[in-house]
Design goal:
Helix content: 25-40%
Shape: globular
CATH superfamily of one domain: Topoisomerase I, domain 3
Largest sheet: 6 strands, antiparallel, barrel
Strand order of the largest sheet: 8-9-17-16-13-18
Radius of gyration: 31 Å
Length: 728
């Protein structure tokens, strides 16, 4: 009572002096009412819920008054991280709980929903977004079968208007397909990962798609390791004709038979064979057999879909897939543009469709006509056909407004945003331009028993190449007359060796996964990052993916005991079954049950029969301990990997020096643009994200870069697989 009385006195004094606002005293013994959230709800307005705060801000500026725009900040419900939470004996029923830390968000949404005239859920238009919409409807008491679902494919005034004119119901087939994927990944991750911990070492993980991708990388490395180089020789004849015309002719025939294998490797096996060929050329006249010149066309490339955007951003910009998706998310959700407000610059970036609207194609054609002239404009809009099992619900990734050229908006974008937007904008406009015309020339010559040729190509008309690189070397070959004699200026013999297949780049792995039908557009970025985070792969000096000793051990164990998990055809088949749930209404529990029957039997057998595998020795990091001078190595502990001193096990040193490993995210710092966002831990162990250039840059965030959906995790928080949208 005295404490309460004293508080009232203090408030009275503050009110008298004007240092605090007036408010009614709270009765003693009662709970203090929680402060209303910023922007208290206004009765009667339409509540619109999106999953991203930045998306909410952009939408709020477009919709204006009459709408209450709120963010769920990703998933509000998910499977708990501490246990399996799948009732395998009761139809694989998942146990969803409120995501940790989302209590205040949910209370705010419930309060606003209770006074709103209408509730609309505008999460992203894909499986993961549909699942978010369903969880929100369940939590807020909104009937998912009622008109409550808004799907926006571009966040522009026009795109938003169209979306709100086509309000529909939650697509339960999409929800069930996502739920099936979620349950499957949970079963694999939470059942298989502990087995890996027991048989190999702690901290490992496995997953349906992750492990199949690891197998592809390990199999490629196996081909490299077993490759035996074969010697061959290349003979090149430098020759000239009247008028100073010069030719560089490669020997490719002997006695009328081709010496070329696989389009590149010459069957001149040793130096003595090359010497015989050289002598034949020196002993005979070199005569032109033919000269041909043909003009062909190269059709424009299609606009981007998710996989090709990641591939091209990797090739052209050296962006990791996660960096690409984070940057694209920002361009989709909107950036402030003077005179336009916050504007989404690209359409939805998780798509495997190549379709574009007639209006967008028309806008591109108008720009091409104005900027390049009629010679670059086809008679009608270009249509690019997709291959495989593409979904046509979304358009391709394109600029929302072609007139917003990269140079026009450059000063309003981060360096990463500008480079990626420039890539998207150019690719889309180029997709509506005339083909490039290429002139291809070939001169063939003979000398005794030896045949030789030179081929080249040059651009006659650049067409779409005016905006995008044609990736070809202009090589003009001077015309030659049939029967014309050439003067030999020199003969070069060059020893070469066949080369093994190359390791995958990030782009190459994504392309291979797509060709095999493994994963979905929303999963590719996460797959690559997970393999890297688990230290199953590293990037070599050429930035290609090489399996680590640990990665090869895990792959060998899985292939020995769980061949279905790493089998590419099996994994692709599972993706088709998930599509069957969404497209044809197949029961998701049946899909999960069919998988579980074989998987659980393999689990029991491996737990009983599989022998323990010695993990690779600790990996040195190339630094010495500052305390004792022993090499520092990467160690594993209860709470994950860390850097420790190898002298710990030395009976004389017993050095206990340790330091955390800064986990990179592959995302450039949004504040300075120079550093990289890394994961750190605070004094109380709570993770946060900051710039690698700290203290020069003080950027800090308590959510992963671009996070808007949330994700699951494996035992003790170990991520287990490639859930849709978890790259955000």
């Amino acid at each position: 009572m005295l404490k309460d009385e004293g508080s009232r006195v203090k408030r009275a004094r503050a009110k008298k002096t004007g240092t605090a606002p007036s408010r009614k005293p709270v009765k003693a013994g009662t709970k203090t009412a929680k402060r209303a959230p910023r922007g208290a709800p206004e009765p009667g307005r339409t509540l619109v819920i999106v999953e991203s705060p930045s998306k909410a801000r952009t939408l709020g500026k477009i919709l204006g008054k009459g709408y209450d725009i709120q963010s769920s900040v990703g998933h509000i419900r998910d499977l708990p991280k501490s246990r399996l939470a799948i009732d395998v004996d009761n139809g694989f029923e998942p146990e969803y709980i409120l995501v940790r830390g989302k209590g205040a968000v949910v209370r705010n949404l419930k309060e606003r929903a209770s006074v709103s005239g209408r509730v609309l859920i505008a999460s992203d238009p894909d499986r993961e977004g549909e699942a978010i919409a369903w969880h929100l409807s369940e939590t807020l008491g909104v009937d998912p079968g009622s008109p409550c679902r808004v799907r926006m494919y571009e966040i522009t005034p026009k795109g938003v208007k169209e979306a709100f004119e086509q309000v529909s119901t939650v697509d339960m087939k999409k929800v069930e397909a996502q739920q099936a994927r979620r349950v499957l990944d949970r079963l694999v991750g939470y059942k298989l990962s502990p087995l890996l911990w027991d048989k190999i070492k702690r901290g490992l993980s496995a997953g349906r798609v992750q492990s199949a991708a690891l197998k592809m990388i390990c199999d490629r490395q196996g081909l490299i390791d077993s490759f035996v180089p074969r010697e061959y020789w290349q003979v090149t004849v430098a020759a000239a004709a009247e008028g100073g015309r010069e030719y560089s002719l490669r020997v490719d025939r002997l006695d009328g038979k081709s010496l070329v294998k696989d389009g590149r490797t010459l069957l001149i096996k040793d130096e003595s064979s090359a010497a015989v060929i050289e002598e034949e050329v020196r002993s005979n006249e070199v005569r032109v057999v033919s000269f041909t010149q043909k003009e062909g066309t190269r059709k424009s490339l299609p606009p981007f879909k998710t996989s090709t955007l990641q591939q091209e951003a990797s090739r052209r910009l050296s962006f990791a897939p996660r960096r690409t998706m984070f940057t694209a998310q920002g361009l989709y959700e909107g950036v402030p543009i003077p005179g336009r407000g916050t504007t989404g610059l690209i359409t939805y970036m998780r798509t495997d469709s190549l379709r574009v609207s007639a209006e967008a194609a028309g806008q591109a054609r108008e720009y091409i006509k104005t900027a390049f002239g009629k010679g670059y404009l086809p008679p009608s809009a270009q249509v690019h056909e997709g291959k495989g099992r593409s979904q046509d619900a979304h358009e391709a990734i394109r600029p929302t407004d072609v007139t917003l050229t990269p140079d026009l908006v450059r000063e309003h974008l981060t360096p990463d945003q500008y480079r990626l937007y420039d890539l998207v904008w150019r690719r889309f406009v180029a997709s509506q331009m005339n083909p490039a015309r290429i002139a291809r020339s070939t001169v063939e010559a003979e000398s005794g028993r030896v045949g030789m040729r030179q081929s080249g190509a040059c651009v006659v008309f650049d067409g779409w190449g005016a905006l995008c690189p044609l990736d070809m070397k202009d090589e003009v070959i001077e015309p030659a007359r049939e029967g014309e004699l050439l003067e030999v200026k020199g003969i070069t013999r060059e020893q070469r060796f066949t080369k093994p297949p190359s390791r995958f780049t990030d782009a190459g792995l994504i392309k291979a996964l797509e060709e095999e039908g493994i994963g979905r557009p929303s999963t590719y970025a996460t797959i690559v990052q997970t393999l890297y985070d688990r230290k199953y792969v590293v990037r070599d000096e050429d930035k290609r993916l090489a399996p680590t000793p640990l990665g090869r051990i895990v792959d060998a164990f899985l292939e020995a005991h769980f061949p279905g998990i790493v089998d590419l055809a099996f994994t692709a088949g599972m993706e088709n079954e998930l599509d069957e749930i969404e497209d044809n209404g197949r029961l998701w529990r049946d899909v999960v049950r069919d998988f579980w029957t074989g998987f659980s039997a393999a689990l029991e057998k491996a737990a009983a029969e599989a022998e323990k595998v010695a993990p690779p020795p600790p990996e040195p990091i190339g630094e010495d301990c500052p305390l004792c001078g022993s090499p520092l190595v990467i160690k594993s502990g209860r709470f994950g990997d860390f850097i420790g001193c190898s002298g710990f096990s030395d009976p004389e040193k017993k050095c206990r020096y340790t330091r955390p490993i800064l986990k990179t995210t592959g995302v450039a710092c949004p504040k300075c643009g120079e550093g990289e966002v890394v994961r750190r831990k605070g004094k109380k162990g709570k993770p946060f994200y900051g710039c690698s250039r700290y203290p020069e840059c003080d950027y800090v965030s308590f959510t992963p870069p671009g996070e808007g959906r949330g994700s699951g995790g494996g035992p003790s928080g170990v991520a287990t697989d490639d859930e849709e949208g978890s790259d955000r």
